[in-house]
Structure formats: structure tokens, C-alpha cells
Amino acid sequence: MKIHEYQAKEVLARSGVPVPKNAGVADTAEQAAQAVEKLGGRGVIKAQVHTGGRGKAGGIKVAESPEAALEIAKSMLGMILKTHQAPQGIRVDKVLIEEPITITSEIYAAVLPDRVSRKNVIILSARGGMDIEAVAEEDPDAIARLSVDPLEGVCDYQLRDLCFRAKIETAFVNKVSGFLRSLYNAFVACDASLLEINPLAVTDTGRVLAADAKVDIDESALFRHPELAGYAEESEDDPIEAEAHKKDIAYVRLGGDVGIICNGAGLTMATMDAVQRAGGHPADFLDVGGGAQAERVKECLGIVLSDPNVKGVLINIFGGITRCDEVAKGVITATQSMDIKVPIVVRLAGTRAAEGSAILAGSSLVPAETMQDAAAQIVRLVNAA
Amino acid sequence: MSILIDSNTRVLVQGITGRDGAFHTGQMLEYGTKVVGGVTPGKGGQVTQGVPVFNSVADAVRETNANASVIFVPYNLNAADCIIEAAHAGIALVVCISENIPTSDMIRVNAILKSLGNVTRLIGPNCPGLITPGQTKIGIIPPTSFVPGNVGLVSRSGTLTYEIADELTRAGLGQTTAVGIGGDPMIGTKFIDVLPLFEADPNTHAIVMVGEIGGSDEEDGAAYIKAHMTKPVVGFIGGRTAPAGKRMGHAGAIISGNSGTPQAKVAALQDAGVPVADTMHEIPNLVKQALAQRQ
Hints:
The structure holds two protein chains of two kinds.
Chain A: H1 5-14, E1 22-26, H2 29-38, E2 43-47, E3 60-63, H3 66-76, E4 80-81, E5 90-91, E6 95-98, E7 103-114, E8 119-125, H4 132-138, E9 143-148, H5 156-165, H6 173-189, E10 192-203, E11 208-210, E12 214-217, H7 239-246, E13 250-253, E14 258-262, H8 265-277, E15 284-287, H9 294-305, E16 312-319, H10 324-337, E17 344-350, H11 353-360, E18 366-368, H12 371-384
Parallel strand pairs in A: 14-16, 16-17, 17-18
Antiparallel strand pairs in A: 1-6, 2-3, 2-6, 4-5, 7-8, 7-10, 8-9, 10-11, 10-12, 13-15
Chain B: E1 10-14, H1 19-31, E2 34-39, E3 47-48, E4 51-54, H2 57-64, E5 68-71, H3 79-88, E6 93-96, H4 103-115, E7 121-123, E8 129-132, E9 136-139, E10 148-155, H5 158-170, E11 175-180, H6 191-200, E12 206-212, H7 217-228, E13 233-238, H8 262-271, E14 276-277, H9 283-294
Parallel strand pairs in B: 1-2, 1-5, 2-4, 5-6, 6-7, 10-11, 10-12, 12-13, 13-14
Antiparallel strand pairs in B: 3-4, 8-9, 8-11
Helix pairs in contact in B: 3-4, 6-7, 7-8
């Protein structure tokens, strides 16, 4: 789950990670102006959107007075911010107001789980402020790593050694390693799946603090973090995805016009691939999950059809736990209760496939034998529409 | 012959009285799996579907000599702890079906298994389990598409395993063992762990390896194949059109930055001499071609 910068900084501050002083978030220009006044008349206004590269796109601006803050916030709130990471653009609904700081050097720090070693790894580089993947490509030696033993935890000497390997200025090694200690504690405390500080700023007055912060939370761990539940609401950028997730449906919007409903993530991805191969463009990834009942299937169809781009739907089920007759019942009740104007191709295989096909016979739904056949049929129907 | 499980494997079901545990215990018994006991703390002494229930894995092992266990306990009842309990009781093969176990818990579990000397092999979590057709199955794999034969199947995806087994079986290619290793980022058994088992199994003549986007397990598998495998391997990668940065259903399937892309996986497999099927339908023919070339 992606959370906003201001929420990330709340999480970090709880574990003692130093962050700039702030006067909260604002969703109106007036609130932003008041916040800048509270900070003493100067403040940085930062758009709260789930993307990096905000500065270059005009999403971070310094206000020299409350009046300037009013103007800046007016133009920033409601704007569609387009960055290199989010070229489609994201609307700005909230801004964070922080104290201005003067940065003398920028460090990169991150904590994330490493799948290969099955350990958490802390990454540090003195070349902060820029895209770390670009640094990795042109100067891999500038990036130092520390694998944390899951049973021993992390030792201070290891953090200092990491700083030296990352070529952190000697005068700041103790402060930076202390920062990393708190950062690792924060990572563990909130069950993060990614914690990235870029830049970790060293200021003209010798402070070391998280100027920006990106925190992703492990969704599987949310059940034991009631303190993070409030963040879930603001974690969605797409209204259909938000609606689907409220109903606990695994749905990702992809932008094409062929709606896709399958069971199992692997089969859903393979079906997306088959549609693309047949010359179509998948509108979504939707996994109904194992053992879906008729009502669930109807709900899923509702989600897919709420995307106005969808010109046809492909339902591809390989029944294991999922029973094809239940899926068929769900599709039939959905077509009876909803006014569906687009073609639907259904392919059923596995558990109770024959019973499912019998239920669909005589309806307007288009049956298909195999996945390739189903993909070809739906693409043909959508292109003819 | 087969790998990991056969008709002699003695299976415990952790969470045997829960909805999924009870249902799949019935399915396993029906297939012929030797389910020798179940564990539900507080229900020790009961009998369900003819199977004795125990309060702990240690009790169950003492009474039944079980050497494998399958976990249906949900994430919010601490499924990760059940894996550790089974390992402490000396179970050699633990199959964890449960999904949504936090990554941090699985990091700890894998470290503990290592500290115990790797005597317990973990399959999963978030996996469908294994099947040795005609002999036994552990987990939730629907057996109808599987028949005994000489193809080994290893996959990160459950439903793709069924779909591909169906294609193989229709083409007259049976299977030695199919292993669903699970879709999570921190799984106990990876491609590089399963491939040597198939290489050593005299009945397995060819292997189908089914990967998907995210992580680098397919690349590591490809490197292993290149260096060590003599048997032919056919590959398939799901999610070749998935966009970067979007999590496709389960936690493991995500392209983040430059890592986990399908292009890198396909290229690594091809470099290792592994033909990669564009569609699942092509897999049986690629297997047949690989087997013919070898003879």
C-alpha cells in the first residue's frame, strides 16, 4: 500500500527518525496560507501525490510569505501533476506545508526486503537527490548495501561500516548511522515493504533529516496495524480500483478496452498476454480468487463494466476450487439484473465445466473452447463494435 | 519414482477442523493421500473424517510418525508460527497453503529453518501444494487434469499449473510430480531447489518451468540449468504484458524498476537453451521436440 509523504513522515517520526518541522496538510489555499504563517512566514508547499519527480513537475514550491502561499496553493490544489513516473497525471488534493531547509549535501537511504537472500537490506549512497537506478547504472560502486540478519538484527558497528563504504563524509557518520538505526526501527515497526529517503538531507546547520520520504506498507501485514488503517483511504489513485479494493477484489486498471475476469493471478496474467497477442488491449487485471460464488462473480462483472472504456469482457475460468457452474450462474444473474450492452466471451474448464456450459447455453454469451480461442473471439467482437 | 512426495508420504493437516482444512482433507483422502493426523489446538482427542486430531504437531508426530504437513491455518491465526512448530517437531516437508502471511514473518521463518540446519523443506506459502499423479497429493490441486508420466512441472502460479497440466495430459504427456512453489516474495523453495530434484529423478525426462513477473528466481533458475542440467527444460513466463509498478494480484508479481521484467526472464532462459513458449498451448509440442532432440 502506497502512502503519502506526510503520512510516511508521521510513521517515521514515531520511530524517532528526524523529519523537517511541518504545519500539517491543507486541502484549501487558505489553510495553506495559515500553515505558512504558523511556521513563521516562510514555508515549502509540497503536493501530496503517489509519485516521485514532483519538484521538476512543479509540485514543490517555496512560499516567501503567507500571501505567496495562498497563490501557490491555489494553483497547486486541483492541478493534474504529470511526472516522468506518472505521465498520465495525478490530481493534487492535498499539500504538505513544511519549514524551509537549506541542504548542503544529499544522501540516498532505503530499506527493503531482498527476495534472493530472504533478508532485509539497507541501501546507502552519498549520491542522493537523483534517481538511484541511474546511479546504479553509471557508478555501481557509489551504492553500499547491508544485509540484516533476521535473527540477530542490526548492529551499530555495521551501520557505521555501511556509512564508510558509502563514502559518507566522516564528520556525519555518527549522525547518519544513528538516522539509519531509527529508519530500520521504523521499517520493522510498520511492516513496510519499502522505505526510501531521497534525499536524506544534511543542512547548513548540520542537521541530518528526511527531506522526502516514500513508504510502502506490506498489505498482508495491515491486519495487525490498526494505526495505519486510516491511510488506506488515501492510498488509491483510481476510483474503480478503490471501489474494487473496498469489496476485497484483486483488480488493477490497465487502460485498454477488453475487460478480463479470471481465477488465479497467474492465469489472469496469461489471459492478459493472450488478449494482447490476439491484437487487443486489456482493460484490467481481475482475479476472482479461489472458490468464487455466483454473487461474487456478479460483483466482479459490475466492477469491470464500470470502466467506460470497456467494449467487451472475457471471462476465463479454470476450475479447481472454483466451480464453473457457480461462475456460470453468476454471469447469468448479472446479465439478467444489469443492462449489459457489450459482448461477453466465456471460457470454462476444469471442475464442473460441462454443467457450467449447460447453464450458459441459449444465452447471449459467447462460449469458447480454449484460452486462445476466447482471446481471438473477444478481440474480434470488440474491434467490430 | 517422483520427487518430494509419493504413496508412502505420511501427512498431517494443520488446521484440520477449519473450513478449508476439513474440505481438502476429504479431497486428499479421496485421492489416496495417507492423511495420518490433524492438528487443531484444543481439539486433541477428536476424530474427523476418520483422522485423529492432536493438540500440537509434536504430539501428532509422536503418535503417527508423520513426515509431512500441510498448513491451512489462516494468516491472522499466525500461520507463520505453524511452520516453525512443524519444523521444531522434525517434519521433513511442510507445505503452507495459507496466503497473506506478512513478508517480515516469512523472513524470520526462513532464517529459523536455516538455523535448524535446513532439515525441514518448506513449500510456499501462498501455494497450491504438490501432486505425484496416481500416488498422492498434498494441498489443494484439483487432480482431474493430472496423469502419471515423465514430465516434471514446477510453477509459481496455481491455476497455471492446472491449465498447463491439462495441456500436457491432452497431448499424452503425463507428469512425475507437479510442484506449486507459491507466488509470494519470500518462499521456502525456489526453482533452483526443485530443478536438481527433477534432474536426479530417473523417471523425469523433461521439465516444464512456469514463472511470472517479479523477482529474479527465473534468472537464477536459468543460470542453474545452464551450469548443471542435462535434462531438457521448457519455460513459460506469465505477465509479459503487465505494466511496471503494478502488483498483479499476489505480492510477488510486480515489476519494480529494472527488476522482475519478463524480457530479462525470457532472455535468461533462452540463453540457457530453454525454449520459452509464447502460449501455454505450445508447451506440449516444445516438450515433445526437446525429448526427440535428446534421443
